[in-house]
Design goal:
This protein has 211 residues and is α+β, with helices and mostly antiparallel strands. The chain has helices at residues 12-38, 43-61, 77-80, 126-143, and strands spanning 100-101, 107-111, 149-157, 167-177, 180-189, 192-202. The chain has one domain: Thiol Ester Dehydrase, Chain A (Roll), CATH 3.10.129.10. It has a six-stranded antiparallel β-sheet, covered by helices on one side. Bound molecules: Palmitoyl-CoA. Keywords: Apoptosis, Cell membrane, Cell projection, Cytoplasm, Fatty acid metabolism, Hydrolase, Lipid metabolism, Membrane, Transit peptide.
Length: 211
């Protein structure tokens, strides 16, 4: 049986054209999220912005897919990640992380998190750190030629993670045991590790390995 990661062929130039089209839209909405959290304009301007945004939403909804983006039959493996809340080209809640892949299988990214990711004042929400680490560990699993659903994700929050500071996420796989892939990773700031993670990613019963 196959499933989650079935792929189809699409002309790479078509994918690039779509990225050029949707990327700026997504970036504008990211900026809007931050603006909505931090604005102090008067009530008339808030009402004006609300009306304008309602109009924008109607414009975009005039033609749309049924259901979620990643489940579309015409979406390739590359594009499927565009819906990701961590790296998604089409997902404004993604910071986004731009992942780097090393030849030895390590995966890492530099990023910053702003007002939309706040937990304790001026600090990153612990669930946001978990989201990022789940994804980056999962990418390391995939880079190793395996894939699997997150079975267990264990986190140790060693120090608070600051908002609006340079951060880095790292992940690598530790070992493979049958259908289970064990991966480790961390988030760091300029002073070192703030959150450590280890995860067990499991190829579900009946599914084929990625490659
Ligand atoms: C084509 C190109 C595409 C490109 C694409 C790129 C993608 C690039 C990366 C994306 C990165 C995204 C990263 C986010 C990933 C999620 O967010 S996944 C979503 C969150 N996770 C879930 O929803 C998982 C829900 N749980 C399940 O689906 C099932 O319980 C599981 C985990 C698949 C296991 O089910 P199962 O296959 O029936 O497992 P089962 O036969 O009971 O057990 C198998 C083994 O695993 C162990 N096990 C079972 N459950 C667990 C568990 N929870 N914890 C630890 N061990 C367990 C068992 O003890 C057993 O061990 P052994 O006896 O073999 O030693």
């Amino acid at each position: 049986m196959t499933g989650y990661l079935d792929d189809i062929r699409v002309d790479p130039s078509e994918i690039a054209a779509q990225e050029a089209l949707y990327g700026p839209l997504t970036q504008s909405i990211r900026s809007l999220i931050d603006a909505a959290i931090r604005t102090e304009v008067d009530s008339e301007d808030i009402a004006g912005a609300t009306a304008a945004l309602t109009q924008v939403a109607s414009l975009l909804r005039a033609r749309q897919i049924d259901g979620s983006y990643g489940a579309q039959p015409s979406v390739t493996g590359v594009q499927r990640s565009w819906a990701s809340p961590v790296i998604g080209v089409r997902n404004p809640i993604a910071p986004p992380l731009i992942l780097e892949h090393e030849p030895d299988g390590r995966v890492w990214a530099r990023f910053r998190l702003g007002a939309g990711y706040e937990g304790p004042p001026s600090l990153v929400h612990g669930g946001v750190s978990a989201l990022i680490l789940d994804h980056v560990l999962g990418e390391a699993v995939h880079a190793s030629g395996h894939w699997g659903m997150t079975g267990t994700l264990t986190l140790r929050y060693r120090r608070p993670t600051p908002l609006n500071r340079p951060l880095r996420a790292d992940a690598r796989i530790d070992r493979v045991e049958g259908r289970k892939v064990y991966a480790d990773g961390s988030i760091s700031d300029e002073r070192g590790i703030t959150v450590e993670a280890s995860g067990i990613f499991i190829l579900p019963t009946g599914y084929a390995a990625a490659r």
